[in-house]
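Re: weekly structure request thread

Next one in the queue (147 aa):
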Amino acid sequence: MKLLSFVVATMSAALLASAADPKPLTQLQIGVKFRPESCPSRTAIGDKVSVHYTGKLLSDGTKFDSSLDRGTPFDFILGHGHVIKGWDQGLLNMCVGEKRRLKIPADLAYGKRGAGDAIPANADLVFDTELIAINGKTAEMMEHDEL
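Done, posted below.
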């Protein structure tokens, strides 16, 4: 009976340890959470995009940043290296109003250097994103242009 209790306890501890320490990501994972029915324009390299996001550590879900907390989306030129590679790749071909979850391996994020105290070295990241505008045009403006 003691042996059975030991085996069960050992297996439980191993399962908990593996759940708490996921394997490092090896590639970018893009999950589309919402895509609008109408998509007259998609993001491309060189577009100025406006994105709301929440960033978390994949390892434990700790939030390290969110544009939603500031109430202002983040603007940048897509594909020009102004953001981490995981964003430049993961936000391509996206519709205004679309929501994606990006799981980004460390080598497409901040790698060995990390980022300040919030993001440790070699951290895989998760970003929940929503595309607000492409080149200053929101979904409402694009719908009006279609009419």
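Residues 2-20 form the longest helix (19 residues). The chain has a mean pLDDT of 88.
Next request, please.
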